[in-house]
Every structure is written in C-alpha cells, then in structure tokens.
Specification:
The chain is mainly α and about 130 residues long. It has helices at about 5-30, 35, 50-75, 80-105, 110-130. Helix 1 (about 5-30) packs parallel to helix 4 (about 80-105) and helix 3 (about 50-75) runs parallel beside helix 5 (about 110-130).
C-alpha cells in the first residue's frame, strides 16, 4: 500500500471519530430520540458544543472529497513521491487536529489547520500533473 493510500485509510478513522463524537454529543443533549427521530428542529435543541461538532463533521466530509481526488490522481498517474506522501500525511494530521480545534474554538489554529490540509491536497494534485 502506498503512503497516500494509507493516509486515505487513516482519514476514514478520523471520519469515524468525528461521527461518533458528534452523535455522542447529540445524545447527551437530547437523548436517543435525536438519533432515531425525524431530526426536525434539531438545531434549536442542541448545545453549542454539539453544533460545533456537527459543523466540524460537515467540514470534514467536504474536505475528504478533495483528498480522495488527490489520492486517486497521484495513484493513477503513479506520481507518488516523498512530496505526495508528506502532503498526504499533513492532510491527515491537519484533519485530526481540526476536529478538536473546531470543537474547542481554537482561534486562529482552526483556520491554520484547515489551510494546511487544503494546501496539502493541492500539492498532491499539482504533483500528479508532472
């Protein structure tokens, strides 16, 4: 397995943690019916912590798509290198730290972590072109 594919696999574990953390917080706020109910007017009943975790999860989902594209491009073009491997693991580290940064409102670190992960994806995409 390439380093980039291993980083993609690691990203799935970050995703799992994000989902579980978000859902646990939701259940603490409104009970189990929050997970099995219709979820209508849900945001009105959630704490700021739960809302932050839900936004962090949404952001993670949005950014994982770009990372998948970057890994696929690097893999299919066989442009794997120490640069793409490093960029892939920078993305993983940035996303892993982004979740608590969003949850605990670490300003400006949350934005810097987002930027690091975002740029890492584009480094991989550019590397796949050469």
């Amino acid at each position: 397995m390439t380093y980039e594919l291993a980083a993609l696999a690691a990203t799935t574990f970050i995703h799992l943690i994000a989902v579980l953390w978000s859902q646990r917080s939701l259940e603490q706020d409104i009970g189990r019916e929050g997970n099995v109910g219709t979820r209508e007017n849900l945001e009105e009943r959630l704490s700021e912590n739960s809302l932050r975790l839900r936004r962090a999860l949404g952001n993670h989902i949005e950014n994982t798509g770009l990372f998948i594209i970057a890994v696929v491009l690097v893999s299919f073009t066989e442009s794997n290198s120490w640069v793409t491997a490093l960029a892939a693991w920078i993305f993983v580290a940035a996303r892993a730290l982004y979740l608590p940064a969003y949850r605990f409102a670490w300003v400006p670190w949350r934005s810097l972590l987002f930027t690091a992960g975002f740029l890492a994806c584009f480094v991989m995409i550019v590397a796949s072109l050469f």
